[in-house]
Amino acid sequence: MLSSLTIGSLARESGRLARKHRSAAQCEEYSEAMASGRRKVTVVGAGMVGGTAAQILALRDYADVVLVDIVEGLPQGKALDLMQAGPLLGYDTNLTGTNGYEATADSDVVVITSGIARKPGMSRDDLLKTNMGIVRSVTEQVAKASPNAIIIVVSNPLDAMCHVAFDAAGFPRERVIGMAGVLDSARFRTFIAMELDVSVEDVSAFVLGGHGDTMVPLSRYSTVAGIPITELLPADRVKALEERTANGGAEIVGLLKTGSAYYAPGASVVEMVDAIVLDKKRVLPCSIYLQGEYGINDTYVGVPVKLGANGVEQILPLNLSDGEKAALKKSADAVQDLVAAMERIKSEA
Fold it and tell me: Are 170 and 186 within one domain?
């Protein structure tokens, strides 16, 4: 596969990757990706999350990026700005900004960040109705343009919007995936590292369930260098970290006053794209349509999955305690409440 590259181009590629401080294994993965032709990743929604995801993807340099938004000039301007950063940061990613979907054709991965945030005085049903329409329209268009793509849903309320995208795309469940668990687990890892004054690189954590205050941080499966945090911290501190994780997004909203998190959500998107484009077989907590797994049926909820070139390639079982099972069911029930509300809204339309 590498024989198609000249020695000179390989040397330049190797040097460029080394300058980015990537490991030898990462260099090999990136070289293979380049040798087999550039991929295409579409990001729908050029707001703060979508723009951040596009920026990190550009730095990855393994795929060209199409940035889509309904606001004229916004995706074009961000794409051009990111292109002009390429000579300074050492990437050759081609970025295209557009208000339509022709340029998205044959994308390998499509990330959907479109939607509005809940505004003061807006009811839950109003938010659902608005974002249902946006996500359905976007999904129908990207699915038509890229029938073999893997869709990553980021729009909120996330697990409910996964249902909308799954229905609109008509893809198998393995190719319509929600992002939240990666973000929630990253927040949990951050808080654990801060609490214990250790590197985040030595912290592993899992957060399951829906993306909201019913999420389920699994402290028994969260470790520092392989040691469960339940053996390193008293129960009250573990509980405090779990609660801070469940309210991680709200904490940032409260600090920012206007707007919400985008650096960590954007990076979480790219971790999933990495796993797919580079076929890394990463085990990550993602929202997936469960059909009996974990005793849950016909519901998008976050569980550990193996993520690779085919999307979700395996749903991994965990031996949950009775309390953890009950918490996961409660979280799934909260998602089902939103799904039921969406069905009612559709019937009233």
Answer: no
Burial zone of 197 (CB within 10 Å; 0-12 exposed, 13-18 middle, 19+ buried): exposed
Tens of pLDDT, residue by residue over 252-284, are: 999 998 889 999 999 999 999 999 999 999 999
Burial of 90-107, coded b for 16+ CB within 10 Å and e otherwise, reads ebebebbbbeebebbeeb
211 is annotated as an active-site residue: yes
Give the predicted TM-score (pTM) of the model. 0.89
Mark whether 216 and 295 lie in a shared domain: yes
- Per the structure, how many domains does the chain have? 2
The tokens for 212 are 């909201």
323 and 333 in a single domain? The answer is: yes
Cβ count near 131 (within 10 Å): 22
312, 150 in Cβ contact below 8 A? Answer: no
pLDDT digits (tens, 9 = 90+) for 171-219: 999 999 999 899 999 999 999 999 999 999 999 999 999 998 899 999 9
- Concatenating the DSSP letter of every residue in 100-121 gives SSGGGTT-SEEEE----PPPTT
Active-site residue identified among 175, 211, 306, 329: 211
- Rg value, the chain, Cα: 20
Q: CA-to-CA distance for 197 and 330, rounded, in angstroms?
A: 33
Could you tell me the CATH number of the domain that includes residue 313?
3.90.110.10
Token pair of 121, please? Answer: 């005085």
C-alpha 312, offset from chain centre:
13
State the Cα–Cα distance between residues 172 and 250, nearest whole angstrom: 33
Cα separation of 43 and 78, whole Å?
Answer: 12
Instruction: List the domain range (segments joined by +) for residue 318.
Output: 181-348
Do 246 and 186 reside in the same domain of the chain?
Answer: yes
Give yes or no: residues 198 and 312 share one domain. Answer: yes
Q: Is 210 exposed, middle or buried (0-12, 13-18, 19+ CB in 10 A)?
A: buried
